[in-house]
Amino acid sequence: MIAKLTLRYEFNSDPEDDFGWLAMSVETDAFAGRGGFWVQWQDVKEVAPKLDAYPLPSANPFAEEWGQCEFDGSNYEVIVGFSILPAKKTGDLDVIVKITDHFDTRRKCQAVFRTNYPEVASFAAELKELMDRQRDDAVLIGRNVS
Length: 146
What we know:
Layout lengths: L1 E9 L8 E9 L4 E9 H5 L1 H4 L11 E7 L8 E10 L5 E9 L7 E9 H15 L6 E7 L2
Antiparallel strand pairs: 1-2, 1-8, 2-3, 4-5, 5-6, 6-7, 7-8
């Protein structure tokens, strides 16, 4: 079965507001989840160039996450995020996706699937097009980890 991570971004209609809705969904054979969070469009746009790294470092893996905390900075909770890290020396990569309900942070989904560098490159290109308003979503395709 195919596993996938899908990102969508809804820009705010107010040109003075940098925040839009980042919707994230993940599907694997064992888990599926979806959620979203208010994220600055500049933060999402900066993700694609980071995915161009080859090889992705295992010591400091690629990770992007957005979340919320108390006013004093305590109790940080990841609401949406994903990591991509080397899985094997053959070029396989593990994708770890975290999605939390931003209203009730007790409700969470974490899923893992495996992909490769060509799929990550395709995802990065789609993400660039998404943030340039040339497509509706960016999808990272992979396979289930058994």
